[in-house]
Structure formats: C-alpha cells, structure tokens
Amino acid sequence: MLPQARNTTLAYLGIAALLLVLTVILPASGVWERRGLPVVHEVIREARVVEVTPGEDIPTPGGVIRQQRVIVEVEGERFAVDRTYQAASADAFEVKVGETVLLGAAEGEQGTVYQLRDRARRIPVWTLTLAFALLVVIVGGTRGAMSLVGLASSVIVIARFIVPAIMSGWDPLLVCIFGALVIMATTLTLGHGVERKTAVALGATFGCLVLTGLLAVGAVGFAHLSGMATDDASTLQVLLGPGIIDARGLLLGSMILGAVGVLDDVTTTQASAIAELHEANPSLSRQELFRRGMNVGRDHIAATTNTLLLAYAGTALPLILILAAQQQPTGILVSFDALATEVVRTVVGSIGIVAAVPVTTALAAAVAGGARARAR
Is the pLDDT of residue 40 over 60? Predict the structure, then answer.
C-alpha cells in the first residue's frame, strides 16, 4: 500500500474509532446519566383527520377563541378530540380533513385525555432533506457524498455526545469545544482528504476555537449576561430543575457551535489558497505567501463576518421586532439581556473568524515554506 493511501486509511479508521467511542460505547456504558428529566406519561402518534366539526367562536379582547371537535384515526381506531384555542396564537393551527396530525394521549384522573399537539411534518422534512442530499451528490460528486457523511457524523456527535454530556452535568463549554473539534476533524478529513492543507486547517481551527472560547468567557462576564435570555433556556431549567445545567455555560457552548461552521470555511479556504499559491510558484517565501494569502483573506473576512451577522439576525428577528416595538432608544434596547446576548454572540464569533484568517495564513505559509526548504 502506498504511504498516502496508508495514511488516509489510518486517518479514516481513527475517526471511525473516535466516533464509535463517543457516540456508542460511552452512552451505552451509562457514563452520561441524564439527571432531572421529567417522567413522560404522554404517548404521541401520527393520526389522520377524518372529520372536523366547527364550534362557537368567542370574541375576546385578546383574540377569537375557537372551539371545534376533530375526529382522528390511528391504525383503524377513531378518537374524538375537543379543541379550544385562540386564533393566531403561537400554538394554534388549523386542521383539515385528510391531514396528518400528532395526537397526544395522556392518562389523567378521568381517564385518557387526547390532544392535538401539532401537524405531522415527517414526510416534508425527509423529502427536503433527501432533495438536498441528492443535489449535493449530483453537483459535488464523490467529494459531495463524503461531505454528506461528514454532515451525518456531525449530527451524530451532537445528538449522542454533546447533548447527553451536557444533560448529565458536564461543563457545556468544554463539551462543545471538544465536540466541535471532533466534528471538524471528521468533516475536514472526509470532505477534503488527508492532505497537508487539511492538517493546517484543523490546527488553525483548534487554535481559533480556544481563542473564541476564551473571548466568550470574558465577554459574557464583562457584559453580565445571564444565559437565561430566551424562553428555551428558561424552559430547560424548569424541565431539568435548577442547577442541572449551567445557563452561562450553555450560552458559551452555543457560541462555539455557532462559530465553528464558519471557522471551517475560513480555515479551509485560506489553507487551500496558500497551497495553490505555493504550487503555482514554489519560489515564494513564507513572507510573500503570507502577504498574498492575506490579500485573499481580507475579502473573505468581509464576506464571512456579514454572513455570521445575518445568520444571527435571521434567528433573532422576532426578538428584534419585539424590542423595536417598545420604541426605546438603541442604547436602551441593547442593554436588555436578550439583545445584548445576540450582539455579544455575533461579536465573539466574528472576532474568532477574523483571527482565523491571519492564523491560518501564517500556519499554512510556514508549512509551505518548510516543505520548500526540505525540497532543496
């Protein structure tokens, strides 16, 4: 076997072994015992709507209260569900005959209580996911297929390592940093192969992740962020109980995971740019490679920082509108925990991305320069 092929095989085997330990062996050993989880007595199944009988609409100052009886069918058995909900509220949804919904069945003091929890979206979600996967394979070919494998491994690491480790009481920041490194090692190797530029990108990503983590710790403390700015964070504390998960640590971990995907793009692009420059002109010195690489990197900085801002703004758009509706000065609005959290999240991630450009460029130039010196 050729050395390159042997190294590639060893790298893939190492990744497979690491993923096996993190996502199969450790969870199966019970090392991550989820604490504080509520006992769930509700069973949720998909059901088909066979009949909808409208009831009386009751106007109220807060909106229209609607009543209806819905008959649903599950595996040949029919159930009647009496619904009362406020139109246009967050948990309201209209149902029509023939639609598939989620039927919840919970045991109560007076017997089994049935409720319509939501629409069933399994088929649309899987259809869109399959369409995305097919497009990636058609356009990207073998590399595209390998990137999908990397994507699947990222989902597995999050679901089987990051989530259970945090819920068992481990420090969310350390868990997310380690999980992010595993994700990066997997996706970079599978997507770009076992090459020198892959090692450079991975090394730069590691350094920038550590830097971003330190910045996040300092920024969250400096801005006195609580980590409880969102309803999701508050709900998590109610479900698991106070003290099970550190809210600030969870905020710090989310900053790491939010930035790692963009860091992957920046470090890989910069490492590839330096590798191409070196291949096109092997006589370029480390200093010249760094200078020319930074010319490319500055354009990349402008694009990626804007991408991160828009990604966070898109997620927090309802929050921004709520705060804007209060008609307060910007200086006042930015002091609220919820908006300050999003601003700090964006700034910390952007600093990590900006730092990734010179770090990756310097590391790639040093590696390329060392290869040139050895070739003499």
Answer: no
Is 42-120 a CATH 2.40.50 domain?
A: yes
Contact 245, 166 (CB under 8 A): yes
Alpha carbon of residue 359 to chain centroid:
24
Share of the chain above pLDDT 90, in %: 11
CA distance 65 to 54: 12
Q: Which of 106-115, 181-190, 336-345 has the lowest mean pLDDT?
A: 106-115
C-alpha angle with apex 27: 154 to 104, nearest 5 degrees? Answer: 80
Per-residue pLDDT, 7? 65
Q: Cα 46–48–54 angle (5° rounding)?
A: 120
φ, ψ at 60 (rounded to 5°): -135, 165
- Which H or E element spans position 140? helix 122-157
Nearest CA to 276 out of 194, 200, 141, 368 is that of: 368
The Cα–Cα gap between 342 and 219 comes to 12
Mean pLDDT of the chain: 82
Give the phi and the psi of residue 46 in degrees, each rounded to 5.
Answer: -80, 140
Q: 11 near 189, Cβ under 8 Å?
A: yes
The pair of structure tokens assigned to 121 is 């979206």
Residue-level pLDDT at 297: 84
Q: Which is it for strands 63-74 and 58-60: parallel, antiparallel or unpaired?
A: antiparallel
> Is pLDDT above 80 for 127?
yes
d(CA 13, CA 7): 10
Q: Which residue has the tokens 């801002």?
A: 309
Mean of the pLDDT values across residues 23-48? 72
Q: What spatial distance separates the first Cα and last Cα of the chain, rounded to whole Å?
A: 27
Question: How do 100-108 and 42-54 pair as beta strands?
Answer: antiparallel
Q: Domain ranges in the chain?
A: 3-32+124-375, 42-120
Segment 182-224, tens digit of pLDDT: 888 888 888 777 778 888 888 898 888 888 889 999 998 898 8
Cα gap 15→263, rounded to integer Å: 20
